[in-house]
Amino acid sequence: MTQPTVVFQMNRHFTITKDRLWHLLTDPHAREIWGAPSDEDTLTLEKADFREGGQERHRCGPAEEPQYSIDTHWYHIEAPQLACFSETVSAQGFRFAVSLVRYHLAETDSGTDLVVDVAVAALTDEDMRDDFQNGWTSGLDRLAKLIADKQLS
Description:
Belongs to the AHA1 family. The chain is of the alpha+beta class.
């Protein structure tokens, strides 16, 4: 029997404008730079179509063999403050999980607050919560570091 859906929320503050953060979160090429689930993994764009109803595909995993496919479907886009999309994670024709993600950005005096809501439906007997939560934590940590180092500001 598969695990139930799990939900978690991440809150971050970035010292850049809402428009700039929006671009870094939604541009598929920018996501290649910060979006892999760990420093050892790579995220490579195969297909990009950022619009409501648009679909994207990234390959993810170790650089020598990015075995996972991440299929993104964009449902709702209110630039530059709100986006809702799903991601399906699969490898070798087998789906592991589907997640529903919502970005909410709010400008502040010192930058932009980001709330990321994630609901994960595991399609295996494995508990996917830690994998997804660790992946999002790692990605957002790398995004914050790249911004702080002025490599993505």
